[in-house]
Amino acid sequence: MISNRTKLIILSLLTFSLILSGCSLTSGEKKKIDPPQDVSYLKEDESTTITEEEDKALQADNQSEKEAAVMTELFLIDKNDFVASKTMMLPNTESVAKQALQYLVSEGPVESMLPNGFRAVLPPDTMIHGVNIEDGKAIADFSSEFKNYQAEDEEKIVQAVTWTLTQFDGVDSVEMRMNGETLTEMPVNGTVLASTGLTRNQGINIETEAVADITNTHPVIVYFIAQNDDDYYYVPVTKRASNTETDRVTAAVNQLIAGPGYESELVSGFLPDVKLLETPKLENGQVTLNFNDAVLGSYEKKMISNHLLQSLVLTLTEQQGIESVAVKVDGSTELVSGDGEPLTEPVTRPTKINADRF
């Protein structure tokens, strides 16, 4: 079994090689080889010049395609059985929330778009009767086929539906129904569904194996790194932090540093000797962190790796009231990202999480 530290070293080497080749780690893009193009030959009197009218028509077509699509985060199941998101370009419809659930159905429209190693979470032939949003709650009504899932997928379905719907503005919680009847528990394994609605606070990819006394802990959502071939993506995990850690930002950072469980396929971008030098400061939605120099991926360049930065920003902006993250090392702000860009401004949450190239 490869330890987390060994996996981290391998990841760091891969990250360094990507930096040398000029690849951005934050984009989630994969290198693609262009397919062979048909070859045609022009006669001497033929012209390749595009007229002004043709150029305007092409621009109008491109604009129409952009307006006809909407980037949507779909929570799926990856090859390691984690619930993880992929941002996909879906048709722009009046009900984007309903459409998002339709793209969670196995053997449905998402099948041709699924990245390698991912699968949809809802049973085949599940119909979405509707998604109504009332007072911050999204009420999702499924057909009878919704109950045709494997017991081991039950909690993953609850998490995927909840996290997919709560990405939308105005949605804080989710209620699930089947043929118009409110579900108080899931139909296969009896997972209890909160009567007040499902929220992100109830967790995702819950990790409790190393917790001796769960009653003296509180949940913390952190983002670790997963790899599928040449693709890196970020997976939210609910860990348990000690109630003695009263500062929520410090608790989250410490869980990132501690990393995932020993046998987990996930890795953290943080080395174990990374430490916060002072209590984080939160003001006007911006949290400022001051680390020791172990957080640096390159001491000479004062570089913080993109993987570490992305995990940190995703983790902290998951918390209410945090919109951006500013990083210092030994009090200095003279830092650069893995792309060599100065980190002179606070970093905000990306609008496209785990997005493929479009």
Automatic annotation (TrEMBL):
Lineage start: Bacteria, Bacillati, Bacillota, Bacilli, Bacillales
InterPro entries: GerMN
Chain segments carrying region Disordered: 28-48, 336-358
Translocase found in the keyword field: no
Keywords assigned: Signal
SMART domains xref list: Germane
Comp. bias (Basic and acidic residues): 28-46
Signal peptide start and end residues: 1-26
Name the UniProt record assigns to this protein: Germination protein M
Pfam family, one: Germane
Domain GerMN: 97-187, 249-338
Record carries keyword Ligase: no
